[in-house]
């Protein structure tokens, strides 16, 4: 087992899953990483990989975050040398509200603030808190650090983050755009500045994170000035199963005229829409590309709508950031789908973006690089590393 520590234990507790990894903050080396899936069901499972070896096991029925964390600690106990080099635990926390513009060393006040924000992220923040509590018990001597998905977007100006609703909704209830995927946009935008050989503070960038969830960020002079996700991660782009933007009167129409319950509507917009809803097939971009090639019209329509919405946002954000230094693609689709990148960029020809198809075809499987022609504004595909950002930020608080 490698001994290139110090290391950070990174925990990403989702509503029914936990991703965990041990990462060297200086290099990103990841000697151990794993995934717990299907919490609260009869088919919970845990898989992890330590230096090339993959191990699978099952969880007790209906296991919760605390039980899963106990198993993770047992696994770490088998790797004493690694565990002995841990200097902090970094927690991904989805919603930091307006409390956190940067990562924070966790204490009771921070826990209370995360708790207060839970009503805006009811599936995620309670899971994050469960992870924090368990890790505090398991690693009482290590600093615990919260790294927020929303923090990167606390620089948005009011004109961008407010909805045109009665101002009292913002003042009394915090109704505003928060933005998500902040650690990913942070990582790829800084990486882009390096690749462009330019000071980050001088860069005007647009980054599109396209995974199951999708968001796009406008970054002007190194500050986030707009983003497509909003009060929740539902707003904006077409996503795997989420609708993104639509007429805000549709939910009340579906409830009052079509007889759906509010819970139905919430579930439809979050779980049955997007690529999956339009295609009627799948939320998996790979499958839709394959089906579209075979002539499936619904699969083609889903991809067309996905790309069209993205093109509209890129055009809008080009107006917002001024002279563009680079358009960035990241996330599972952004890093791997030459088809989506080509289809999007080819619709931006008149704005000075021209793809190099040969470079574009080569760019996948964790590679990062330019995919544009010499006369074009830069278009970059960059492999995101959210966990590494969490490790780096957490290391700042290690003694
Ligand atoms: P998450 O948001 O859950 O982290 P990912 O960032 O892993 O998701 O992205 C998942 C998406 O990436 C899926 O739609 C998947 O089809 C897509 N994807 C992964 N590899 C490819 C590929 N080679 N070509 C096209 N799409 C891909």
Overall mean confidence score, pLDDT: 95
Oligomeric state:
single chain
Which homologous superfamily in CATH is the superfamily of the largest domain?
ATPase, nucleotide binding domain
Assess the beta-strand content as a share of residues.
15-25%
The backbone outline, from C-alpha atoms, is globular
What structural keywords apply?
eight-stranded mixed β-sheet, Nucleotidyltransferase, domain 5, 2 domains, binds adenosine-5'-diphosphate, 39% helix, globular, 19% strand, Acetate kinase, transferase, 14 strands, single chain, six-stranded mixed β-sheet, metal-binding, magnesium, 399 residues, alpha/beta, acetate kinase activity
Q: What do these coordinates show?
A:
It is built from 16 helices and 14 strands. The mean pLDDT is 95. The protein has helices at 65-77, 80-83, 108-116, 125-138, 158-161, 167-173, 182-196, 250-256, 262-271, 274-279, 285-293, 297-321, 331-336, 338-346, 357-362, 386-395; strands spanning 7-13, 18-23, 32-37, 45-50, 53-58, 86-93, 104-105, 144-148, 205-210, 214-220, 223-227, 326-330, 369-370, 379-381. The protein is globular, with a radius of gyration of 21 Å. The protein folds into 2 domains: 7-148, ATPase, nucleotide binding domain (Nucleotidyltransferase, domain 5, 2-Layer Sandwich); 198-386, 2-Layer Sandwich (Nucleotidyltransferase, domain 5). The chain has 399 residues and is of the alpha/beta class. Helices cover 39% and strands 19% of the residues. Strand 13 (369-370) and strand 14 (379-381) form a beta hairpin. Strands 5-4-3-2-1-6-8-7 form an 8-stranded mixed β-sheet, with helices on both faces. The longest helix is centred in the last third of the chain and has 25 residues, at 297-321. Adenosine-5'-diphosphate binds at residues 211-213, 240, 284-286, 289, 331-333, 336-337, 364. Residues 211-213, 240, 284-286, 289, 331-333, 336-337, 364 line the site of adenosine-5'-diphosphate. Catalyzes the formation of acetyl phosphate from acetate and ATP. Can also catalyze the reverse reaction. The active site is at 149 (proton donor/acceptor). Keywords: ATP-binding, Cytoplasm, Kinase, Magnesium, Metal-binding, Nucleotide-binding, Transferase.
């Amino acid at each position: 087992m490698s001994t290139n520590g110090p290391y950070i234990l990174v925990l990403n507790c989702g509503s029914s899953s936990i991703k965990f990894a041990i990462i060297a903050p200086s290099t990103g080396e990841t000697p151990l990483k794993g995934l717990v899936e299907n919490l609260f069901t009869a088919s919970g499972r845990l898989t992890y990989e330590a230096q090339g070896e993959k191990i699978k096991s099952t969880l007790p029925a209906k296991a919760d975050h605390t039980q899963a964390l106990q198993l993770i600690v047992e696994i770490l106990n088998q790797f004493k040398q690694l565990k002995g080099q841990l200097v902090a635990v970094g927690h991904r926390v989805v919603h930091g509200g307006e409390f956190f513009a940067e990562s924070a060393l966790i204490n009771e006040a921070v826990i209370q603030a995360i708790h207060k924000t839970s009503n805006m992220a009811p599936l995620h923040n309670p899971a994050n808190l469960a992870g924090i509590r368990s890790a505090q018990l398991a690693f009482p001597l290590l600093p615990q650090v919260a790294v927020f998905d929303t923090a990167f977007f606390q620089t948005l100006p009011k004109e961008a983050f407010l909805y045109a609703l009665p101002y009292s909704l913002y003042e009394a209830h915090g109704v505003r755009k928060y933005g998500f995927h902040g650690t990913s946009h942070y990582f790829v935008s800084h990486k882009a500045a390096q690749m462009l050989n330019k000071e980050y503070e001088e860069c005007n960038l647009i980054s599109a994170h396209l995974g199951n969830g999708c968001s796009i960020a406008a970054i002007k002079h190194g500050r986030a000035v707009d983003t497509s996700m909003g009060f929740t991660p539902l707003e904006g782009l077409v996503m795997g199963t989420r609708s993104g933007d639509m007429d805000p009167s549709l939910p009340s129409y579906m409830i009052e005229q079509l007889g759906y319950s509010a819970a139905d509507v919430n579930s439809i917009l979050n779980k049955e829409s997007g690529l999956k809803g339009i295609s009627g097939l799948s939320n998996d971009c790979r499958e839709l590309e394959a089906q579209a090639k075979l002539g499936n019209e619904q699969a083609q329509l889903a991809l067309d709508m996905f790309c069209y919405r993205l093109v509209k946002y890129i055009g809008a954000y080009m107006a917002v950031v001024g002279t563009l230094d680079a358009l960035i693609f990241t996330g599972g689709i952004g890093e791997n789908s030459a088809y989506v990148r080509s289809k999007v960029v080819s619709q931006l020809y008149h704005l000075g973006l021209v793809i190099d198809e040969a470079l574009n075809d080569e760019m996948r499987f964790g590679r990062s690089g330019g995919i544009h022609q010499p006369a074009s504004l830069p278009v970059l595909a960059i492999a995101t590393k959210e966990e590494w950002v969490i490790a780096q930020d957490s290391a700042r608080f290690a003694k």
